[in-house]
UniProtKB/TrEMBL annotation:
It comes from Apibacter adventoris. This is Uncharacterized protein.
Length: 287
């Protein structure tokens, strides 16, 4: 104990007089620890009594990931699809797309986009969000969830998302930028915020977004999101804010553990990782 303290004192003195440099520890990479692999009997019984649908949107034949991680183009909706199916093998899986796509066990909906300004470089992202909103509204399942294809589900704690959606009606994830004004200042496809909030409201993310069957508030909210994205397209977070401001209806916001993005690594109690962000994939040692 004394020798350890003595060593630290000597090292500190050597740094102070310039004889030694401070060496910072590199951020530790951690593996995925799935603490809860299986559902309890009661959880499984609940799952067996409801229908559920997971909705993906994939536009453009070449898979593009803005977060930096490279994915196999042939496994188009993985890792999300495979990691979800592990827990919900009987759920319905649907992909909205604009090209011929075949994935075993997945319902493919080939569609044309009604979103205006098709020449805009963000047209594909806008269209993807439009069909997320549309898919949530039109799904006949009890629990419906729209999410990106570059997510990794870590454990059966994912069931909490179903319970929270049943309780609150509809949920969306937190945005790491939090403040809408800040989000618009540093993001692509942003616009000026013209309402009285001055951008000082909360910014939402788009994966995962959920809706419980028959929830009227959620229906009002997502319908407004869909119409605004169709006619006044922009970044998804701004469209979602506009819908909340217009209707006075807003979702339950999931904490960062449900969409661990760049900057949130190591938060603890992680449920879903956004491994499309290269820093997240590296931190959790996902190859």
């Amino acid at each position: 104990m004394i020798s350890a303290i003595k060593k630290r004192v000597i090292n500190s003195f050597l740094v102070f007089i310039g004889e030694k440099k401070v060496v910072e520890d590199a951020p530790k990479k951690v593996g995925i620890v799935d603490r809860k692999q299986f559902f309890t009997h009661n959880e499984q019984s609940f799952i067996d009594t409801i229908s559920m649908e997971f909705i993906f949107t994939e536009f453009g034949k070449n898979r593009v990931n803005a977060g930096g991680t490279e994915f196999n183009n042939e496994e188009r909706i993985d890792p999300t699809f495979t990691s979800l199916k592990k827990y919900f093998p009987k759920a319905k899986y649907t992909v909205f797309t604009d090209f011929d796509l075949k994935i075993k066990g997945v319902n493919i909906m080939k569609v044309d986009s009604p979103v205006v300004d098709p020449e805009n470089p963000r047209f594909g992202y806008r269209t993807g969000n439009y069909f997320k909103f549309k898919g949530l509204l039109e799904s006949e399942a009890d629990f419906k969830c729209a999410l990106d294809s570059d997510m990794q589900i870590l454990s059966s704690k994912i069931i909490a998302l179903i319970y929270m959606t049943q309780k609150f009606g509809f949920c969306v994830p937190h945005n790491v930028r939090q403040l809408l004004k800040r989000d618009m200042e540093i993001s692509l496809d942003s616009q000026l915020i013209t309402d009285e909030s001055q951008g000082l409201g909360y910014s939402y993310n788009q994966s995962p977004m959920t809706l419980w069957k028959g929830d009227k508030r959620g229906g009002i909210y997502y319908k407004a999101c869909k119409e605004i994205m169709k006619n006044e397209p922009s970044r998804g977070s701004l469209v979602m804010w506009k819908a909340a401001w217009k209707t006075g209806v807003y979702p339950y916001v999931l904490p960062k553990q449900w969409c661990v993005c760049s900057g949130d690594e190591g938060v603890g109690d992680e449920v879903i990782l956004h491994i499309g962000h290269n820093s997240v994939a590296n931190y959790y040692n996902i190859k």
